Amino acid sequence: MGIFKEDLLQFGNLIDTEVEVKIKEEDLGSFYSGLEFRVSPDLLIVSKTEKKFVFKKHREVRCAPDERKVFNVREGGLTRDFGIYLRILVSKGIENIIREGIQAEGEHLKMSLWQVFRSSETYNRAPPDFRDKLTVVRYLLRHGYVSLFVTVSK
Questions:
Q1: What is the value of pTM for the model shown?
Q2: What are phi and psi of 10, to 5 degrees?
């Protein structure tokens, strides 16, 4: 007796298995062009270097993790966006890093990671029926990467 696609979907819904996905600094930097990311266990630094004439201005925003504060945007049962919230420690120059996918909401920096995740190897290896049903549960900052914990939702 084989396993059918419907059985896989039900199996995925019943088990709350978290899968760890690593989003590297380089992946963030390539998606958010013009920004540089440095990730350590207690700190994420988003920086931007601006050239004006001969001078260079280096602006950076320092953020701390808030592991359980994540967001998931779903439409019609499918994931359209997900990401993380980070506590802003130093907000000077935050207007320089705001762009589509990165927003300031009060004391938090809201960073979308859906498009970065979609270009990852883990997303491409996931069965097509699961890809748009993944949601972020929590995250951790590690040396050199953001570790997302995703699960399949109904």
A1: 0.83
A2: -65, -40
Positive or negative torsion for Cα 118, 123, 124, 127: negative
Q: Do residues 128 and 118 lie in contact, with contact meaning Cβ atoms separated by under 8 Å?
A: no
How many Å apart are CA 153 and CA 12, to the nearest integer? Answer: 8
- Which among 101, 140, 151 is positioned nearest to 22, based on CA atoms? 140
- Show the beta-strand stretches assigned E in the chain: 19-24, 36-40, 43-52, 55-75, 78-90, 102-105, 108-112, 134-142, 145-152
58 pLDDT tier (thresholds 50, 70, 90): confident
Measure the CA–CA gap between 18 and 8, rounded to whole angstroms. 16
Tens-place pLDDT, residues 4-38 = 455 455 555 545 678 889 999 999 999 998 899 99
Count of residues making up the chain:
154
Q: pLDDT (tens digit, 9 = 90+) per residue, 116-132?
A: 999 888 888 888 878 88
- Residue 113 tokens read as 């990671």
**Residue corresponding to tokens 């320089």:** 96
